Amino acid sequence: ILVEEKSGESKSEIRLSPIPSNDVNDPLRWSFKRKQLAHLCLFVYTLCTGSACTLVYSILIPIEKDTGIPLSTLNAGTGYFFLLLGWGGLFSQPMALMFGKRGVYLVSMIGSIACLAWNAYVSSEGEWIANKIIQGLFISPIEMLVETSIGDIFYAHERGFYIGIYAFVLFASNYFAPLVAGVSADKNNQVRRRF
Fold it and tell me: Distance between CA atoms of 120 and 45, rounded to whole angstroms?
């Protein structure tokens, strides 16, 4: 029950759920500005990792031509990636509870950047599959940890808006990254044809 009506009075007040503690460091007691800054950090994390995991989908044919890895293996790598993206939460959630969310987010970003750099040097089928499995593990906090962080920072009556922003950014990053990569690859091919 989020709205509590007091008996005999026409006014109703919002019951805070969860109830904040007396600790000054409780995220529920943060100032509005600090909460928005924390949400902006979650927004940037979601945008960056969401874009990183879908960047290669529109350029699988050029990757096949450059590396000689069959398209079926490239697609299988995508399947393994999403499998580990889901199962990785079994590792990232307990790690976040044991060591803190900030460290997990930091390791996730560094690991995803390393996997993206490694992506450029992949030359065999096994290496591609290994890259996608490891990348799925590193990016897995995007699926569960962000919602948990929003739940830690905002009250129940505020969460809907911020979860909506998270969902929009997640889907938008997954949608626009392949478009940008495809346009970039197409322009690159046009430049090569001119020379």
Answer: 22
Cα separation of the two ends of the chain: 68
Burial tier of 145 (Cβ tally within 10 Å: 0-12, 13-18, 19+): buried
Q: Beta-strand (E) ranges in 1-140?
A: 3-5, 12-14
DSSP state of 59: G
pTM to 2 decimal places = 0.83
Phi and psi at residue 68, in whole multiples of 5°?
80, 5
Report d(CA 7, CA 149) in Å as an integer. Answer: 35
CA angle 102, 49, 99 (to 5 degrees): 20
Q: What is the pLDDT along the chain (195 residues), one digit of tens a residue?
A: 555 555 555 566 666 778 878 887 889 889 999 999 999 999 999 999 988 888 888 888 888 988 999 999 999 998 999 999 999 999 999 999 999 999 999 999 999 999 999 988 999 999 999 999 999 999 999 999 999 999 999 988 889 999 999 999 999 998 888 888 888 877 766 666 665
CB 144 within 8 A of CB 87: no
Angle at the Cα of 158 (from 48 to 107), degrees rounded to 5? Answer: 30
Query: CA 143 to CA 140: how far, in whole Å?
Result: 6
Tell me if 30 sits within 8 A of 38, measured CB to CB: yes
CB-count exposure of residue 45 (10 Å: 0-12, 13-18, 19+) = buried
